[in-house]
Design brief:
Length: about 700
């Protein structure tokens, strides 16, 4: 098939050989010759050596990116301006803006519409050729001008139009007759005319092309406004003017209607600043709003607040009901926040949408400008918190959630965006640590607490490898015989700087960070080794009890770990007691049953710890089929005077015996408590009255003493 006659030479610069091949093929289809360069440095060298008629330039290239190449070409140009088409990675506003600022003539976005690429290049070449010929002999080429959709004009250095040719596709906002022979200040608004005259002078002085954007209202009457409505903005058209010197005292101008491009850019901007799931502003939008409010409040000497909200236990909803329900919940939360944070509620003159944003996940922020009192921020937080507590009806599910909110204040807590957002986040985590469903103000002491928390976490991660953890053992006594029947292993941490740290401080941290799993495995192995060591030393076999956390119990490797520990230490399975809380057992009843059945299958002794503080359901106790219940010490501490605790304790013992379970009372501290528990038929007891948590050598002596006593 015969090809069209060649119409120009195009330099194609792209580091992707496939892209270069496709571009060359499309250019050949419309009769264009092309040379190729595989990076920015080679593209610049080709430009100098072959002087192409047009440059097709990819943005992302090694060595020298497309923006830099474009700027360098424009810097080195002495006469005619070669057209440069930039290939950007999508319709991103930032890339398009940077392309024009670098001096690009036009842009093509990826993915490229291949069939029209060659025709688009031809159009740009034709327009460029028209401008070049107009510089030489403008009057000779009116027909060419008439075929081009853009408007052209000639203007002298004083700002008077010498000629004006309206493009046939351009949107006219004023007639051509108003232009020729008139000063541009008679045609354009004063501010635009002044700016354009400055650019004319710059072009003549530097001999470089200059550009400026401006907008003009459409002719005709303003839109009619109904009673009670705010007046709509008057419709405008956006224009781009490019000026080039054609002599010492004249410039040639090309005016393009860029209204459609502006609309596209605005749409891109909306997409860039809008959260795709909820439709409210996203993190980037909030950060820019916060930056603007910071500048405004600093100038006006005003205060404002940043609220940082996080849903409590949102992950559980995703895990149990699925991510679709989670997404629907986030949309519903956003809508409820919109309703709750109306402008009046926010004490703001601006629209609520500018104050509310979703940062990501289940995190939301609210900006409260023009704050007069701290109580105002707390009131908004309280309304938000209460709004979240109302149930959400989603996909036949009634979902209940709560929210934790942190508040930072400008200028008290910080004078930059990062600090204010970080401190609001810090306060939010403090609210969670205080029981969730809370709102807390930031204070400098919180930062110290967070730093201490982080430092403690780092220390805990090193505690295992540095042998800083150790076990104490508290005896369990058979009430009828007063003999030691077993020991509960209790982990302790001897910190190299702080000394012994209470388990109430580091166990929750281990749970939070997941360190409880390796720590729990170490406790299990160490306790079993110690129980075997006592037997090897000739002491009677005793059962050792180890607490299992919820994370350990759900660990898919739990059975393998238990079997490995029993095999490696040689401890019989019946001498290992695993203690679980009611909450752990009830979290997923079906999975719990399967795990308990496996543990019972290998002969491990199972008990429920802290019984009475959770579900206390006889139905579930029958299904779980554990060997023993440990009555929580909170019920024992009031005995014998507290009649209610006495009744609860007696009922638990009776219920457990009815289910053929043994009962252990924790926290026994007086003889009177022991006597009462014996009357109620309690099987075993443990507590300070009977023995403190003690190191292995102390337990060794206790067992030796018991053995000697039994032999007498």
């Amino acid at each position: 098939m015969a090809t069209s006659p060649k119409r120009g030479l195009v330099l194609v610069a792209d580091d992707d050989p496939t892209m270069r091949l496709l571009m060359l093929e499309m250019l050949a289809q419309v009769g264009l010759d092309a040379i190729e360069a595989e990076d920015g440095v080679k593209a610049l060298a080709c430009y100098h050596s072959v002087a192409p008629d047009l440059v097709l330039l990819d943005v992302d290239m090694p060595g020298m990116d497309g923006f830099s190449v474009c700027r360098e070409i424009r810097r080195l140009e002495t006469q005619a301006s070669v057209p440069i088409i930039m290939v950007t990675g999508g319709d991103e506003l930032e890339s398009v803006t940077r392309a024009y600022e670098a001096g690009a003539t036009d842009f093509v976005s990826k993915p490229i519409n291949w069939p029209i690429l060659g025709h688009r290049v031809l159009y740009v070449l034709r327009a460029s050729d028209a401008i070049s010929r107009l510089r030489i002999a403008d009057a000779q080429h009116r027909a060419v001008l008439a075929a081009i959709p853009d408007t052209f004009f000639r203007m002298n250095k004083d700002g008077y139009y010498l000629d004006y040719e309206q493009g046939h596709e351009a949107s006219s906002v004023f007639s051509t007759e108003r232009c020729v022979g008139h000063h541009l200040s008679q045609v354009l608004p004063a501010d635009i005319a002044g700016h354009m005259l400055e650019q004319v002078q710059t072009v003549l002085d530097t001999q470089h092309i200059r550009s400026l954007d401006y907008e003009l209202p459409l002719p005709g009457p303003a839109p009619r406004v109904r009673q009670g409505e705010h007046p709509a903005p008057r419709p405008v058209r956006h224009f781009e003017a490019r000026l080039v010197a054609t002599g010492p005292d004249e410039v040639l101008g090309l005016v393009r209607d860029i209204s459609e491009r502006k609309r596209s850019e605005e749409q891109i901007r909306r997409l860039a600043y809008c959260d795709s799931l909820t439709g409210i502003p996203n993190r980037q939008a909030f950060l820019e709003t916060l930056e603007a409010e910071l500048a405004r409040s600093r100038k006006a000497n005003k205060k404002f607040a940043v609220l940082f909200m996080d849903l409590d236990a949102f992950k559980r909803i995703n895990d149990t009901l699925g991510h679709d329900v989670g997404d629907h919940l986030l949309k519903a939360v956003s809508e409820r926040l919109r309703e709750t944070t109306r402008p009046g509620d926010l004490i703001s003159r601006t629209e609520a949408a500018t104050n509310l944003a979703r940062l990501g996940g289940d995190e939301f922020t609210i900006l409260i400008p023009d704050l007069e009192r701290v109580e105002d921020a707390l009131n908004v937080a309280h309304r938000v918190k209460e709004a979240m507590r109302r149930p959400f009806l989603l996909d036949a599910h009634e979902i209940f959630v709560t929210a934790s909110i942190g508040i930072s204040l400008y200028p008290e807590d910080g004078e930059d965006c990062n600090s204010l957002l970080k401190y609001a986040d810090t306060a939010m985590y403090h609210a969670k640590n205080c029981g969730k469903n809370n709102a807390k103000l930031y204070s400098s002491s919180l930062t110290m607490q967070i730093m201490s928390h982080v430092k403690l976490e780092v220390g805990l991660r090193k505690a295992l490898q540095n042998d800083e953890l150790y076990l104490l053992y508290q005896p369990q006594i058979d009430v009828a015989s007063a003999q030691i029947t077993g020991f509960e292993a209790l982990v302790r941490w001897r910190h190299p700087e702080r000394g012994v740290i209470s388990p109430t401080e580091f166990i929750p941290l281990a749970e939070e960070t997941g360190l409880i799993v390796p720590i729990g495995e170490w406790v299990l192995r160490t306790a079993c080794q110690q129980a075997m060591a006592w037997q090897t030393a000739g002491k009677p076999p005793v059962r050792v009890a180890v607490n299992l956390s919820a994370k350990q119990f759900k660990d898919e490797n739990l059975m393998q770990i238990v079997l490995s520990v029993l095999h490696d230490t040689g401890l019989p399975a019946e001498l290992l007691e695993l203690e679980l809380t009611e909450g752990t057992l009830m979290d997923d009843a079906r999975a719990t049953m399967a795990t308990l059945e496996q543990l019972r299958g290998i002969g491990v002794y199972l008990s429920i710890d802290d019984f009475g503080t959770g579900y206390s359901s006889m139905n579930y106790l029958k299904r779980f089929d554990v060997r023993a219940l440990k009555i929580d010490k909170s019920f024992i501490s009031g005995l014998p005077l507290d009649s209610e605790n006495a009744a609860i304790t007696r009922a638990i013992i009776a219920m457990a015996h009815g289910l053929k379970m043994a009962v252990v009372a924790e926290g026994v501290e007086t003889d009177a408590q022991l006597v009462l528990l014996e009357q109620y038929g309690c099987d075993m007891v443990q507590g300070y009255y009977l023995g403190h948590p003690s190191p292995p050598d102390t337990i060794h002596r206790m067992l030796a003493s018991q053995t000697a006593l039994a032999m007498t």
